[in-house]
Specification:
heterodimer; A: 293 residues; mainly alpha; MetI-like fold; disordered N terminus; B: 301 residues; globular
């Protein structure tokens, strides 16, 4: 009797431990993949870094036939389009998030959430198709930094809005009611209690949107215009960005050119990981603080 | 002196009504701007959906079901149907990616929530998993190209691997949220009758969370089905049916849209719109199923 029990426990502990190990392995896969991305891609990018050195980041000349790979115009294009996207998306996202949480009744907020889900569900390539065949022609925008920025803005609005909504929802109702009880208007209540309380989280939400805008590939590749060597502030000029160059040039790329494109991807990976690390940290901290109060 | 001031303030109270009107006008203006931003979001969505349906319907449903079954014309300027191989390719790559990412993601989430709730490893994994959702999809595509395609060549499976990498953190996040909703008394009841922890998870916790996990995973699947960049480097290009998951280049709806969108031939652009409609309908069906499962789950609780 006693023996059987011990035997049973032994078996149980063995299978339990094995199960825990398997699930831990699956969880560790996240770290493994991220590590492998960094390692394997950097290795493939080494030839071009060896050839160009730091000029890869500072030279403006990108000429695959001459084995010259200066990525600065594409880094500029990525930053410029992402900045346009953020300028358009942030006020709109904030407006929608405030409308959903402070103005609309639950009966109206619900369909708005569906609307946002729908917008988030439209594939990137479909936005690109619409951008290149409708938006760029209809409004005489052409294929340019601005067109890419607008398309990117439409694509990051859902993520910024949903994060902003979550952050804003952590404002203690007591603060808001207190402000209203003192006779403030709705807008004053928002600027005095909601926005100060959620400022940190909102910054994080915007940064996550920024990360998405920088990494978004296919839509940008279709509408940005694929012009080489453009470092300009003219929003209507055709340009290029890091992900767009990779997608558009991959088909005809050979040895060192391929290595250069992979180096662009490594650069993009490093930048977006950095932005996301900081943003995720900020968002998680502000959520925790919100729950604590 | 100060007493005089004090009484003066009391004697002349601020003109509440006058001030109030300006303040409430300001508040109303800001509310108006919020409504305007809702409209600003709805407009492009309506415009995109309208464009897809108005331009895609005629192409996709002309001579039904030719568009959905015929092969893709090799010569781009040739008018006429054919997205059959692309539909099959999308289903193959997305299906295989689901089979890889969902079990692994669920297992990972089980570890995070049932075993290592607060330990350092799981805190790190949870954080990095959040970060991983922000890794650009094109980076995943190139990663699979470097590690898989260079060795084994183009195939739908390579695309599936890249999609699985994208889905993994999403599935982990969604599953962990669902595991949080499983009430602790279910676990305690199971332990009380002498069930081991692994058995409790497999036959009590996971079944209780299953509908939520399914709907969360389906949303990830719908997203993956529309992805282009990860497939660009691993799937290759084909115009014929390729039912073999592991061998030879394949194609996908998203790849066809990308390839045809910048074409100067009207016939190719038409096919892009038709493919876009097909893709949107496909993701819409998956999302609807997810909503349906969530709704049933909500009613049961």
């Amino acid at each position: 009797m006693n023996e059987e029990r011990i035997d049973l426990r032994g078996q149980r502990e063995y299978s339990d431990r094995a199960f825990a190990k398997i699930t831990a392995g699956a969880a560790g896969l996240v770290l493994l993949i991220l590590g492998l991305i960094a390692f394997t891609m950097t290795r493939r990018a080494l030839p071009v870094f060896g050839e160009m050195g730091t000029k890869f980041f500072t030279s403006t000349r990108w000429s695959p036939p001459d084995d010259l790979f200066g990525a600065l115009p594409f880094i500029w294009g990525t930053a410029f389009t992402a900045a346009i996207a953020i300028l358009i998306a942030v006020p709109i996202s904030l407006g929608v998030a405030l409308f959903m949480t402070q103005v609309a009744r639950p009966g109206l907020a619900r369909p708005l959430i569906y609307l946002m889900d729908l917008l988030a569900g439209v594939p990137s390539v479909v936005f690109g198709l619409w951008g290149v065949l409708v938006l760029s022609q209809f409004f005489d925008l052409g294929r340019s930094f601005l067109t890419a920025g607008i398309i990117l803005a439409i694509m990051i609005i859902p993520i910024i809005t949903s994060l902003a909504r979550e952050v804003i929802d952590t404002t203690p109702p007591g603060d808001k009611e207190g402000a209203l009880a003192m006779g403030t208007t709705r807008w004053e209540m928002i600027t005095e209690t909601v926005l100060p309380h959620s400022a940190g989280g909102l910054v994080g939400a915007v940064m996550l949107g920024l990360g998405r805008a920088m990494g978004e590939t296919i839509a940008a590749a279709l509408v940005i215009g694929s012009a080489l060597g453009q470092i300009t502030l003219r929003a209507l000029a055709p340009g290029n960005s890091m992900p767009a160059v990779i997608a558009n040039e991959w088909g005809e790329a050979q040895d060192l050119h391929k290595s250069a494109l992979i180096a662009l991807a490594v650069t993009l990976f490093a930048i977006t990981i950095m932005v996301n690390l900081v943003a995720t940290g900020i968002v998680q901290r502000s959520m925790k603080r919100g729950q604590g109060t | 002196m100060s007493a005089a001031n004090f009484t003066a303030e009391i004697v002349a109270p601020p003109d509440l009504t006058a001030k109030r009107s300006w303040r409430s006008v300001k508040s109303a203006i800001m509310t108006g701007l919020m409504i305007a931003s809702v409209v600003a979001v709805a407009l492009p969505l309506v415009a995109v959906v309208w464009a897809i349906f108005s331009r895609g319907m005629a192409v996709a449903f002309h001579g039904f079901p030719h568009f959905f079954v015929d092969e893709i014309p090799v010569i781009a300027r040739k008018a006429g149907p054919g997205m059959g191989p692309a539909i099959l390719g999308t289903l193959l790559a997305t299906g295989a990616a689901t089979l890889i990412a969902v079990p692994l993601g669920v297992a990972g989430a089980v570890y995070l929530h049932e075993y290592g709730v607060k330990n350092r490893f799981s805190r790190l994994v949870r954080f990095m998993s959040n970060v991983m959702t922000g890794v650009p999809s094109i980076v995943m595509g190139l990663f699979i190209y470097v590690t898989w395609t260079l060795r084994f060549g183009y195939s739908a499976f390579g695309g599936a691997l890249a999609l699985a990498c994208l889905m993994l953190p999403v599935v982990i996040g969604a599953t962990e949220q669902m595991l949080k909703l499983v009430p602790n008394h279910l676990r305690e009841a199971s332990y009380a009758v002498g069930t081991s922890k692994s058995r409790t998870i497999l036959s009590v916790v996971l079944p209780a969370a299953m509908p939520g996990i399914i709907s969360g995973s389906l949303l990830a699947v719908a997203r993956a089905a529309g992805e282009t960049a990860p497939l660009l480097f691993a799937t290759g290009a084909a115009t014929e049916y390729n039912p073999n998951l592991f061998v030879e280049a394949n194609t996908a709806l998203s790849l066809q849209i990308f390839g045809n969108a910048t074409s100067s031939f009207a016939a190719a652009q038409d096919r892009a719109w038709g493919a876009a409609l097909t893709l949107v309908l496909l993701t819409f069906v998956i999302t609807l199923v997810a909503r349906f499962v969530t709704a049933r789950f909500a009613r049961r609780r």
